[in-house]
Amino acid sequence: MVERLTIDHVGHHGDGVAIVGGQSIYVPYALPGETIEVAPVPGHPDRRRLLQVDVASPDRIAPFCPHFAICGGCAIQHWQGERYRAWKRDMVVETLARTKLDGEVDPLIDAHGLGRRRITLHARMGTHEVLRVGYTAAGSHDVIPIDHCPILDPGLSGALDAAWALAEPLIAVGKPLDIQITMTDGGLDVDVRGSGPLPPAMIATLSRLAEQHRLARLTRHGELVLMRTPPTITIGSARVTLPPGSFLQATVAGEETLAALVSERCKRAKHIADLFCGVGPFSLRLAAKSRVAAFDSDAGAVTALQKAATSTPGLKPVKAEARDLFRRPLMPPELRDYDAVVFDPPRQGAEVQARQLAASKIPVVVAVSCNVATFARDARILVDGGYEMQSVTPVDQFRHTSHIELVAKFTR
Ligand SMILES: C[S@@+](CC[C@H](N)C(=O)[O-])C[C@H]1O[C@@H](n2cnc3c(N)ncnc32)[C@H](O)[C@@H]1O
Fold first, then answer.
1. Rounded to the nearest 10 degrees, how much is the dihedral formed by the CA atoms of 59, 64, 67, 71?
2. How far is the CA of 333 from the centre of ligand 1 (A)?
3. Is residue 370 among the annotated active site residues?
4. Which residues have C-beta within 8 Å of that of residue 400, sequence separation ≥ 6?
5. Three-state DSSP class for 32?
6. Rounded Cα gap, residues 163 and 132, in angstroms
7. How remote is the CA of residue 188 from the centroid of ligand 1, in Å?
8. Domains in the chain, ordered, with CATH?
9. Is the pTM of this model over 0.90?
10. What is the pLDDT of residues 321-348, one digit of tens each?
11. The pairing of beta strand 131-136 with beta strand 143-145
12. ipTM confidence score
């Protein structure tokens, strides 16, 4: 059954939203003001599939990737840049207003830079025993075969070829694979997950492929298969050898932008705690001027950060510790040691740690977030504890998606 709808606005996941009888109906790839024809999506009464745009928005543009709207990687390539950027910033403004948080929201900073420096590809055996290597389809677990992705940093060139080549022999083991590929100073760093125990002949095949594709390192479930060159990244004046699978900001420009905003907001602090520090994109830059204590639950990341800090001349002391901050947040007596705290939790936010920060006397707290909803919850806790939210800067690292990062400063 074909239905006609008019789109009211774009929702927080990038879908067009039509209001029908007071209910929101979500239509991917539709834009505000458009009149469209849609079909039902079985099992999803509030969703529709776009069949045809009858009256197009003047802001509609042609997507630049042939896989767009099939591949689930990008939600938005069909919207004029200024409108898209305003929508991203407005998501932050609206979420803060809903949580009754006052504070100026700065203009959105674009941080796509040269593109994504890490991808995770999926390899599956499709029908008729045909191998598929690519991203999952929009709204399903089907793998869309990909041989080209225009949003990648040129430093990832060769990544798709390497993934196809590694998947070919491995898929014979019979399990679906996830292949994470990261651009490093030494070349591509590849970690393959999903295959079971491998016979020595298969390890030899993988090593040969790693040589052939000039990979910096190949690991399976984090275990070394072959290292040709250490997979390092440069952070400030330091070089960090990446542990397989540790968190990394999606683009080089994203990391540099977030780190610059963090450094600016802590510029007078002499001793800083960096909570949820990862491999140290903030710590290793902050340590140019301040002593830093860094905490993260990922022991590999913390060890890599400590090693990089210790072997970089000219940095102030950095002390990195593996600690689960959900179970064991830094408490007010420990927080007395610092004159600024930075916290950059995963998507679920840091509610437990925020409560302890709210009970502390730290003069400056800088929050970095990849989820505006959990940020708003944690910011509310800080404000209720007596902090004033001074600035919120949205950062667009995941261009073409609905994801948004932000950096905010709180003082007391
Ligand atoms: C958004 S990343 C930020 C990392 C780093 N600040 C960066 O910019 O690369 C979130 C970090 O939180 C860490 N993490 C996740 N759960 C944690 C927990 N319960 N306790 C401490 N760290 C945690 C992850 O290992 C990851 O490094």
1. -60
2. 23
3. yes
4. 73, 74, 75, 76, 77, 151
5. coil
6. 11
7. 23
8. 3-60 (2.40.50.140), 86-112+248-411 (3.40.50.150), 118-232 (2.40.50.1070)
9. yes
10. 999 999 999 999 999 999 999 999 999 9
11. antiparallel
12. 1.00
